[in-house]
Write a structure and sequence with these properties.
Layout (H helix, E strand, L loop, with lengths): L2 E4 L5 H10 L4 E3 L9 E3 L5 H5 L6 E4 L6 H6 L7 E4 L4 H16 L2 H8 L20 E5 L3 H12 L3 E5 L16 E4 L4 H5 L4 E4 L13 H6 L4 E5 L8 H10 L2 E6 L34 E3 L10 H13 L15
Parallel strand pairs: 1-2, 1-3, 3-4, 4-5, 6-7, 6-9, 7-8, 9-10, 10-11, 11-12
Helix pairs in contact: 1-10, 4-6
Length: 327
């Protein structure tokens, strides 16, 4: 019986559920990794890999591959890396929640109402119509596809960017109404963007993709939503665009600095007193802030287990990461 090792599962019930769904596997929780063929973890050390002679695959049980693992795995060419897309619905839903909160000034109006202040209700400038506007979605993977469909449902024009826009997509991916473009067309898209939504992985190519020049191309009063990785957008340029009013608003679920990690499975003490940037985004009224919770919901752990079981039960294992691209 092949052996998989699930490092730090969310709880015992999830581990038991995975064992039930992947009955052909022996799924361990504690080390060592001597017999392990598949390791479910996004954080692995060189010593652990060296001590796992039978390891042939790592499943990163969340979206994206951490940079330390991407760098380390080059020294272990016999081990493949696979990703999960189980929380794409949650991520896309948070993107739309941030977009609507920005477009309708939900947060500042809520704060005013809590003080008994109805005056925002008499000022039309607190809200913009999204119908008929153009949304540019950077990244057309599992999350980006859902975001594009939701924007179409709001009556928006949608331009979506993917690395190879002419490469065939699976038959179940609806593209009717979506204008697909490639990386070389970014500038042409930005000048049309009323809304820019980032839903792409962070790689060497995408880090800093949206900087001062790119933000300057966008229409005055545009909205930016980032549910991908903070460093896709230049920190200082984003702050200045928001503070100056160049951007109407931004909905941000991903940031530039995070609390220091606590012990596995616990909330670090720093989580309650760490600002997400060196710039005071928290002082700007036109920023909707979210603590990197785009993939979270009460349903997501069961979705993760189902996705893990699907990978373990399929040969060859799907969702393999192209290490040259980073996703």
């Amino acid at each position: 019986m092949p052996v998989a090792h699930y490092r730090n599962p969310h709880n015992a019930a999830m581990l038991d559920a995975l064992r039930g769904l992947a009955a052909e596997w022996r799924i361990d929780e504690g080390g060592p990794y001597g017999e392990t063929e598949v390791l479910i973890s996004g954080r692995v050390t060189r010593e652990e890999l060296a001590g796992a002679p039978n390891l042939r695959a790592i499943i990163v049980p969340f979206a994206g591959v951490p940079l330390p693992l991407r760098e380390l795995i080059h020294d272990f060419p016999g081990i493949s890396i696979h990703n999960l897309h189980h929380n794409a619905p949650e991520t896309a839903e948070v993107a739309m929640a941030l977009l609507l909160a920005c477009a309708k000034s939900v947060v500042p109006i809520d704060r005013a109402m809590r003080k008994g202040d109805w005056t925002p209700g008499y000022d039309d400038r607190h809200s913009i119509r999204l119908e008929g506007k153009t949304a540019v979605v950077l990244g057309f993977g599992a999350s980006g596809q859902r975001i594009a469909r939701a924007c179409l449902g709001l009556g928006m024009h949608v331009i979506a960017h993917r690395r190879h826009p002419n490469q065939p997509l699976p038959a179940d991916v609806p593209t009717v109404g979506v204008e697909l473009r490639g990386p070389h067309d970014l500038g042409r898209s930005l000048i049309r963007a009323d809304v820019l939504i980032l839903a792409m992985p962070q790689t060497d190519e995408t880090t800093g993709l949206i900087g001062p020049d790119e933000l300057g191309m966008m229409k005055d009063g545009a909205i930016l939503v980032n549910i991908a990785r903070g460093k896709l957008v230049d920190e200082d340029a984003l702050y200045e665009a928001l503070a100056s009013g160049k951007l109407r608003a931004a909905g941000l679920d991903v940031w530039y600095q995070y609390p220091e990690g606590g012990p596995d499975g616990t909330i670090p003490e720093s989580a309650s007193h760490t600002f997400p940037s060196t710039r005071p985004f928290h002082e700007l009224p036109n920023v909707v802030m979210s603590p990197h919770r785009g993939g979270a919901s009460i349903d997501v752990e069961f979705a993760r287990v189902r996705a893990l079981a699907q990978l373990l039960n399929t040969d060859p294992m799907p969702n393999r990461v192209d290490l040259s691209l980073g996703y």
